[in-house]
Design goal:
alpha/beta; 2 domains; 13 helices; 278 residues; seven-stranded mixed sheet; Rossmann fold
């Protein structure tokens, strides 16, 4: 993919900065970006980058493609989408392996190298699949935006966090996207897939586990609810907005979540024994 020149530091001559900005805009227009998957997050991601790059959408669902058209983003065939220079994957975790396997056959028939960026909330699984399936000359980055439509609607994009790993991207490509995310006012966190999944097991996956358990309790509203119980209710409502498949996928495809759940059950059992006085 084409690379843009690095951003000039503050304090340079204004005309030089204007020329630099024009060069960056021209460079961005020189490569095509596609997003595979137009669910809630795919739609959000398209809205965040479509003003900076020519973006096109592919989804297996005709309803999703129609939604993309309504959002002002071109909906294209899978062949057109895979012809892009940069391809973001925003598909369910449990469908990622089959999707990449299917697309790899088309990608291998194409002449030029591409950059593949996954947007999954598990990284070890994504890394393994991309390693197995992608042609050796293809670049790949791992990316997990730690935000979604609800948090962006409530708090805005500035200050939201995004985790990235260079993986198989060249230094120039990695720097390009790292700088781009920073320019979008995202807080960029660099870590390996293993570090990411281990930490997410004890944070996101644990939060969703607790939220789903509380949801299954079907607790009634209370006029005397404390502040802390209200916070638990907020957690329950927040995780329930996501598809149940996402919850299952986070638990099943993160290699560190089983150990987290075992610690959870053990801690619960120990608390029960203390309550019972045993």
């Amino acid at each position: 993919m084409e690379k843009r020149a690095p951003t000039q530091p503050q304090g340079k001559d204004q005309s030089q900065n204007q020329t630099q900005n024009q060069t960056q805009d021209q460079t961005r227009d020189q490569f095509q970006v596609s997003i595979i998957g137009f669910g809630r997050f795919g739609e959000l991601w398209a809205s965040l980058i479509k003003s900076d790059f020519p973006v096109k959408i592919y989804d297996r669902s005709e309803t999703a493609l129609e939604q993309a058209r309504k959002a002002g983003v071109p909906a294209v065939t899978i062949e057109d989408a895979l012809a892009a220079d940069v391809i973001f994957y925003s598909v369910p975790i449990s469908e990622f392996a089959a999707t990449i396997h299917e697309h790899a056959r088309i990608l291998k028939s194409m002449d030029k190298s591409k950059l593949i960026i996954d947007l999954l909330s598990v990284k070890v699984h994504a890394k393994e699949i991309l390693t197995q399936e992608l042609p050796e000359n293809f670049e790949a980055m791992l990316c997990h935006p730690l935000f979604g439509p609800d948090s962006v609607n409530q708090f805005g994009l500035a200050g939201q966090r995004i985790v990235i790993e260079q993986f198989r991207a060249s230094d120039d490509t990695y720097k390009f996207w790292k700088n781009y995310f920073a320019e979008k006012q995202l807080k960029v966190i660099e870590m390996t897939a293993e570090e990411h999944d281990e930490q997410m097991a004890g944070s996101q996956a644990l939060t969703h586990l607790v939220g789903r358990i509380l949801s299954n309790m079907h607790s009634s509203e209370s006029q005397v609810a404390t502040t802390s119980s209200q916070k638990l209710k907020e957690v329950t409502e927040q995780v329930s907005k996501d598809e149940f498949r996402l919850f299952l996928d986070m638990q099943r495809y993160n290699p560190y979540t089983r150990a987290m759940r075992e610690r959870f059950v053990k801690a619960q059992s120990e608390i029960y024994k203390q309550i019972d006085g045993s």
